[in-house]
Amino acid sequence: MVQTIRREDYRAPAHLIDEVRLEFDLDAESTAVVNTMHVRPNPAANGQDASLFLDGEDLTLVSVALDGKPLDESRYTLSQEGLLIRDIREPATVTIVNRFSPAANTALSGIYVSGQTLISQCEAQGFRRITFYMDRPDVLAKFTTVIRASKETFPVLLSNGNAGEAKDLEDGRHEVTFVDPFPKPSYLFALVAGQLVCREEKFRLKDGRLANLSVWVEPQDLDKTEHTLESLKKAIRWDEERWGLELDLDDFKIVATKDFNFGAMENKGLNIFNSKCALANPNVATDEDYFHIESVVGHEYFHNWTGDRITLRDWFQLTLKEGLTVFRDQEFSADMLGEPSARAVQRIKDVISLRAAQFPEDASPMAHPIRPDSYQEINNFYTMTVYEKGAEVIRMLQTLLGRDTFRKGFDEYIAKNDGSAVTCEAFLEAMTSVSKRDLRQFKRWFSQAGTPRVKVRSNWNEEEKKLTLSVSQTTPSTPGQPVKQPFLMPFPVALLNGDGIEMPVKLEGESGAGVAGTRMLELTENSQEFVFVDLAEKPILSLNRGFAAPIILDAGLTREERLFLAARDGDPFNRWDAMNGLLIEAVRDETRARLLHEPHDIDPRLLETVGAILKDESLSPAFKAVALAMPTEKIVSETLPVIDPHAVHAAWVAVRNAIAKRNLSAFMEAAEKNVTPGEYDPSAEPAGKRALKNLALGYAIAAGNARATILVKDQFTTATNLTDKLAALRLMVNSQTPAKEDMEVDALKAWAGEPLLLNKWLQIQSTASSFAGESLVLERVRELVRCDFFSIRNPNNVYSLLMPFFTANPAEFHLPDGSGYAFWAEMVLELNRINPQVASRVARALENWRRYVSPLASRMHDALESVYARREELSPNVLEIIEKSLN
Ligand code: ARG
Ligand code: ZN
């Protein structure tokens, strides 16, 4: 039975747990827990319910005692959901003994086995798979954790807080006690045991204290931990300097594991990472990996304040810690880049991923506000909306209030709420109190789903030299929300003259001279007008600069004007956006023309603009690489009313080839000018050169240039960094070079022993294109699933092979006969039995089936129905996705 949980049904807990002592006897097959809780009725609950409910899942109960005495069976009831103990009206000590099996835990939630190591993951509701507990974020307790285990099998034992006494026991076992001084909810509990080694360093904090930082891994990974530790030190320093927040612990540990359901977890003082988000060296990590690791290490570290010290009242508030912490990690990454053009490139990449993944979610049957109103399975709501759109909402607040006021509000939020479990209101109240602004309209961003459409039309009055902007906003209806109210959003605007220079702007009714630069407007109504006066000439509009508001903008500009912006806009984000919009439009027009069998030529001015950007000395290679990259087929499809993946693919190839042919010599020049010899350096500047070089090589190969093919083959064998090596392999795999098979086999042989590399290899396979006469990618993927180097139990294998095939290779997945969908259904059902969280992510690949052309849509629907037909065996995670997709 699947239950819908509603935000409005929140009730304060009937009891509180002040302290808990957990004693573990670890064993991979069967672990025993003695759990002693100091429980008391919650005064805030007014004694309405005297029953103590403890969540428990897949546990074996051994005994229950109350104040040291075994409890009569009539006092408690054990169910699938947990343990109910009646009549706890006074403070009491509840002692529970239970067992569970880490080895049988394939869901990777609770405590499970990774190789020889035991790893925990508790957020959101994994703690109940360890012991019976009030597994909810608003119950904060002080934890003491005693771990006993075989010293040979588990020489290293870790948990939250400070390690107290350690001692050897009889029969080869040993014991360590950890005391965590900070009260915390159970989702922040962590335990790790295994044959681990660490890189550690003493680091001086701002207040002079020395903190011991350490990164724990299996021995073969020790040579991949330097960047992790360096990133952690940068994050600690940055949080001190930018937000005045210090590390509150003497010991801060990071653990990396190859078996992990998502990126990483902010357990108090003991962060646990998926190895792909933590481990790097030049042989196993690309430029992007280095960058990503720095940002995830930052993200988890920043949670120590925004998440751990101030936590959530209930799971509906998830964006309070996640949106805010993503915003913080984005700011961290930007500050580490420093230089404005590099920062702009980062902003561009963040927006690309928002558009590629969050916008479609906001337009899907799973659409939900950043603070949802209901869910069936909370693990389905760790979404792009809660995280990335949540971060955009926080960013808008900073834009609206200004950095200084925002910082004051942030300080007030921390000061007022430290040590408690709160709601999103706490953040908005702090911002309201320091800014004295009424933020009630802004709050709609927390409750309304859907991406707002903003439409701008302008009217130039030549006699009066004034420009009227008519701006309207609408937000499409989403499940459960047919009608939307207008949002308050920042809308920075610049008016450019014929040289691309920002003109002085002055709104009607304002006195004095206009000020040149970006003008901040605020949108609040369904439709509004802004009248700019005293303009020397008819301006060209640069709107929503820096992507201040996360909207879909219809600026009403002519192609001429957009070409102008692509060549001249001084706001790097908008310059990129203009170029990107032109490329999307070119593929879209080409798609339409092909479907209608009409002749179509790509606008020569677009082809020329590509060349002009390539040759522009004032632009960084990194910027050129993002500006000239083809928008993905997925991004193009998002802008079409009906998606025909094959038509889009053919159009995409045609546009890319036309760009490549027209600019071949410029691409070859860029490829040769941007090599990065010498020792590998993952920083932004050389990384940008590599990105441009590899992009240029891709175009040159698309243009059929033989020299480019030779260069790329050469690069594959001589590359001294993984970025170049992988780029070369990918280009070859996606070409028709006969040599590609040998390269694939060579790479597989060299990489099979290193999970990080094997996963990259798998991803290249699953996102490849098949050419006439070659086997379909579907067949390759089917074969690979059965190979012994692939394990469907390993989330990273699934995320590298299956997910990209289902979501990032539309032309190969959406086969007209529906065989791709049948394979998807098989995989969802198989994963459902093993790991519901991973299964439900994979299940989401078909949620937007309604948007596809007719035969595909109905075949996708059939596949969804075929999974739904087995609903009796579906986990709540998968069932929620399938039901919502079909509704
Ligand atoms: N809190 C973790 C983070 O840093 C992610 C936890 C994801 N948990 C889940 N059940 N999906 O973002
Ligand atoms: Zn997070």
If you compute it from the alpha carbons, what radius of gyration comes out, rounded to the nearest whole angstrom?
A: 28 Å
The backbone outline, from C-alpha atoms, is globular
Q: Which stretches of 5+ consecutive residues score pLDDT under 50?
A: none
Largest sheet: 8 strands, mixed
Task: Please give the alpha-carbon distance between the first and last residues.
Answer: 18 Å
Structural class: alpha+beta
- How would you write the strand order of the largest sheet? 6-5-9-3-2-12-15-14
Q: Brief overview, please?
A:
The chain is α+β, with helices and mostly antiparallel strands. 41% of the residues lie in helices and 21% in strands.
Protein architecture, described:
Belongs to the peptidase M1 family. Residues 450-554 form the Peptidase M1 alanyl aminopeptidase Ig-like fold domain. One of its GO terms (molecular function) is aminopeptidase activity. α1 packs across α2. It is built from 27 helices and 33 strands. Helix content is 41%, strand content 21%. The structure holds arginine (ARG) and zinc ion. Arginine binds at residues 123-124, 262, 264-266, 299-300, 322, 379, 382.
What distinguishing features does this structure have?
five-stranded mixed sheet; 41% helix; single chain; binds zinc ion; globular; 887 residues
Write the layout of secondary structure elements.
Layout: E1 5-6, E2 15-25, E3 31-41, E4 52-55, E5 60-66, E6 69-70, E7 76-78, E8 82-85, E9 92-100, E10 110-114, E11 117-121, E12 141-150, E13 156-159, E14 162-168, E15 173-184, E16 191-194, E17 197-204, E18 210-217, H1 226-243, E19 251-257, E20 264-265, E21 270-274, H2 287-302, E22 311-312, H3 318-337, H4 340-362, E23 374-375, H5 384-401, H6 403-417, E24 421-422, H7 424-435, H8 444-447, E25 453-461, E26 466-474, E27 489-496, E28 504-505, E29 515-516, E30 519-523, E31 527-532, E32 540-543, E33 552-554, H9 559-568, H10 572-595, H11 604-615, H12 621-628, H13 633-638, H14 645-662, H15 664-673, H16 684-702, H17 706-718, H18 722-733, H19 740-751, H20 755-766, H21 777-786, H22 795-808, H23 810-813, H24 819-834, H25 836-843, H26 854-868, H27 876-886
Parallel strand pairs: 2-12, 18-19, 19-21, 22-24, 25-33
Antiparallel strand pairs: 1-23, 2-3, 3-9, 4-8, 5-6, 5-9, 7-8, 10-11, 11-16, 12-15, 13-16, 14-15, 17-18, 20-21, 25-26, 26-31, 27-30, 27-32, 28-29
Helix pairs in contact: 1-2, 2-3, 3-4, 3-5, 4-5, 4-10, 5-6, 6-7, 9-10, 10-12, 10-14, 12-16, 14-16, 15-16, 16-17, 16-18, 17-18, 18-20, 19-20, 20-22, 24-25, 24-26, 25-27, 26-27
Bound molecules: arginine (ARG) and zinc ion.
The site of arginine (ARG) has 11 residues, from strand 20 and helix 2.
Protein name: Aminopeptidase N
Cofactor: Zn(2+)
Organism: Sutterella massiliensis
